[in-house]
Amino acid sequence: MDGIFSLAMENLLSPLILFFILGVAAAFARSDLTFPEAAAKAMSIYLLFAIGFKGGVSVADHGLDARLVLSLIAGMILSAFIPFIAFFLLRIMSRLSTMDAAAVAAHYGSISIVTFVASTSALTGSGIISEGYMVAVAAVMEAPAILSALWLVSRKSDQQAPDAGLWREILLNGSIVLLVGSFLIGGITGQDGMAKIESFVVTPFQGVLCLFLLDMGLVAGRGLRNSASSLTPGLLAFGVLMPLIGSVFGLGAGLALGLSSGGVALLMTLSASASYIAVPAAMRVALPEANPSIYLTMSLGVTFPFNLTLGIPIYIAVARTFTGG
Length: 325
Description:
The chain is mostly helical. It has helices spanning 2-12, 15-28, 37-62, 66-93, 98-109, 113-125, 134-140, 144-154, 164-171, 174-201, 205-226, 233-257, 261-272, 278-286, 292-323.
């Protein structure tokens, strides 16, 4: 417990978390602080590009092996399986309709790339190494959860199977294309490519991430302020309990794969996070009847802050305990 507490305090006092808290506080105080939509979009594009490229360079250094392939398969299985657990819990802990419960469940099977980055930063700050190819695992965990959610809805309604438009929305979502594309380019160019753009990819990264989390804090705070009436005690409890349950499955998979303590912590983080970029875009197309104020506020307003402040230190401490790292 002392290790978790010290990690939590260190994480809470990091610039990343403090800027997020500043954004939430500003939103609740009804400050006029805001980011232009174009600026917020530019920051997300930069972060996805930098994350993917650095991950590809790491894979180029590491080389392809069986553990990488098995990690990708494990990620896809986790993403497809976790929505069923989330859906089951939501039907017990809330009064959400099948449609809304499935939409929320999809978010919890998919991943938050910013939570992943925050966990990576926390590992780096603690001097804990991790497998560079985990960013590829993050990429493959985006889509399977969406398909699981659609199956959950279709088995209890006349919802149609995914059409070509939905498949396009899932597979060609901008965040997935940029993350996977920059990952492949990083893998092809390796350290030679990194040497040419390192001053752009590495040095500004933490500063841009701080600004991005400030914007996320503003969005999360406004969502909580405006949607408080729809967040029942059961939903709030789910938003904290589900990440912990998902992390347990990530822990089991990471240990079975023989990942390092950092790799296990990252897989736990991925399994515990909730999407607020790719899945909402897909839900608008696939399940337009679902209530976005519920699934967006749950993922961004409840689970995202929990993971940033308490979840990540817990996952790192547990991973180090089980791996001896």
